């Protein structure tokens, strides 16, 4: 069975498959949790930015293409080798802000509130892509500056899921669910936004404040509750 | 009625008293929430330290006494004018770490995990005072250094309450309750530790990661759930 997995298969996915296999081989009825089509992965998104190709070229040079260095769990998404310096409203900076690829058609910075407060930003909680009227900032790269008129947000906690997962949990795109994180500092996130797409793998995204509030570790048991 | 309050009366306490008065004056039965003996105040504790008199003198000079500058909600507790520099395991520092008074019989630093990670600390979640085996650190003040052998913790989220509150909620000292924080980024803290004492006013304490995760503001509705 080990051959089915590579090093990047998240523990929650392996456990889900093992659980399902064990129940089947023992001839036992599957408990509801083991009937889920996919294991739930919860990942903490540290602060990062999404850039347009135009911004990449302003920051890193004409014709520059992002360099993938680490695949993320969602298909096609990656952490790039490139990082930028973010200059906030009071000239405070965050250096080494990671760029995620591939390029998008809008520029967006995702910070936790702790990051935003330390920079002096007053930012709203938004879904990715919904940046109208949000604060802007200056970015600096090795080739120069790029001014974002808007796009600095705290991302709303959310869960990506395939339509099969949505059917299992009985939810639709943009519904809200709860994410219960067990353990010593157990926390339930009561307004997790559901995002459904054919291309999505089941994965909840929380930010560093949320991940640190609940002390999330690789073996922390997490569940989605409608 | 305004004369009954000073500027330091928390909004939640004023609202609780108004709610109770309105129901009574309208001759309506009190809903359960209005029957609570006290309004629930939720405060975010930013990183801080508690020091012994010995540590205060090492850091600020022989015979030095802490200078109260702001009363905290619990009777007798205050933020002091004094602040120290904390030096972590990789020589990273946090300056202006606030000292809370009065002096205690042990030294304790309370950090959020975001603070601890940025300093390179691996700290456990503990109740205040339970510091055996926790990491130590160096502190620096205007008069010199002070070495703490242990005492750097992330404080477990907790709620202070008077025995009257404990009776109302049906809980005892060291029980666990839930703290539900409503709003856009609603979060339920599932393991809030109950601390009961005759001297305590009803107040939940969460750290900056927890406060930022739920976007707590002065008008956020919060409730305790057994």
General description of the model:
- Two copies of one chain form a homodimer.
- Chain A is of the alpha/beta class and 226 residues long.
- Chain A has two domains: 11-39 and 157-225, Barwin-like endoglucanases; 46-155, no CATH class.
- Helices cover 21% and strands 35% of the residues of chain A.
- In chain A, the strands form two sheets. In chain A, strands 2, 3, 4, 5, 6, 7, 8, 9 and 10 form a nine-stranded mixed β-sheet that branches. In chain A, strands 1-14-11-13-12-15 form a six-stranded mixed β-sheet.
- In chain A, a hairpin with a 5-residue loop joins strand 4 and strand 5.
- Chain A is elongated.
- The first copy, chain A, starts with 10 loop residues before the first helix and ends with a strand.
Summarize the structure.
Chains A, B: It is an enzyme of class 2 (transferase). Two copies of one chain form a homodimer. Chain A is of the alpha/beta class.
What descriptors fit this protein?
nine-stranded mixed sheet, homodimer, six-stranded mixed sheet, transferase (chains A, B), disordered N terminus, Barwin-like endoglucanases, zinc (chains A, B), alpha/beta, EC 2.3.1.222 (chains A, B), 2 domains, acyltransferase activity, transferring groups other than amino-acyl groups (chains A, B), 226 residues
Distance between the termini of chain A: 32 Å
Total of helices of chain A: 6
Quaternary status of these chains? homodimer
Rg of chain A, nearest Å = 19 Å
InterPro entries (chains A, B): PTAC
Keywords (chains A, B): Acyltransferase, Bacterial microcompartment, Metal-binding, Transferase, Zinc
Catalytic activity (chains A, B): propanoyl-CoA + phosphate = propanoyl phosphate + CoA
Pfam families (chains A, B): PTAC (PF06130)
């Amino acid at each position: 069975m080990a051959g089915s997995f590579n090093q990047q298969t998240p523990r929650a996915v392996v456990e889900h498959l093992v659980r399902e296999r064990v129940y089947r081989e023992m001839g036992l009825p599957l408990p509801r949790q083991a009937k889920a089509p996919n294991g739930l992965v919860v990942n903490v998104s540290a602060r990062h930015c999404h850039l347009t190709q135009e911004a990449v070229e302003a920051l890193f040079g004409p014709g520059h293409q992002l360099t993938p260095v680490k695949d993320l769990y969602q298909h096609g998404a990656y952490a790039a080798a490139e990082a930028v310096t973010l200059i906030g409203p009071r000239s405070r900076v965050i250096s080494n802000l990671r760029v995620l690829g591939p390029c998008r058609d809008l520029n967006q910075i995702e910070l936790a509130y702790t990051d935003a407060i330390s920079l002096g930003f007053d930012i709203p909680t938004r879904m990715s892509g919904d940046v109208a009227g949000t604060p802007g900032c200056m970015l600096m790269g090795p080739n120069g500056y790029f001014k974002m008129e808007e796009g600095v947000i705290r991302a709303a906690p959310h869960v990506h899921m395939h339509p099969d997962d949505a059917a299992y949990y009985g939810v639709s795109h943009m519904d809200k669910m709860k994410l219960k994180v067990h353990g010593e500092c157990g926390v339930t996130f009561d307004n997790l936004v559901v995002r459904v797409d054919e291309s999505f793998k089941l994965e909840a995204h929380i930010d560093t404040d949320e991940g640190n509030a609940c002390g999330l570790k690789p073996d922390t048991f997490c569940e989605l509750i409608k």
